[in-house]
Amino acid sequence: MPAPPSLCDLFSLRQDVVFLDHGPFGACPQPVFAAYQRWQRELEEEPVEFLDRRFDALMADARRARFHPGMRLWNGSGNG
Which terms are listed as keywords in the entry (predicted)? Predict the structure, then answer.
């Protein structure tokens, strides 16, 4: 069984720089950034379809996922 990646491997940060704190800049893990880019490409390819026809349903799905009992996502309360 392969070893899990180290946390450093999940980020695109330069390996020759020691970051003590991401602070307010918040480096984004690569899988999250890749998902963001997929959504961005979808928006750019068909903005009317995305914003006018699908946006409300996509937001409703996101809100449901945000409050899914099995998920540990930030819920806006500060309680993680």
Answer: Pyridoxal phosphate
pTM of the predicted model over 0.70: no
Res. 50: pLDDT tops 80? yes
Are 10 and 29 contacting, i.e. CB atoms less than 8 angstroms apart? yes
Alpha carbon 15 to its chain's center: 22
Quick one: how far is CA 65 from the chain centroid? 13
Q: How far apart are CA 14 and CA 22, in angstroms?
A: 13
Domain spans in the chain, listed from the N-terminal domain onward: 1-12+28-72
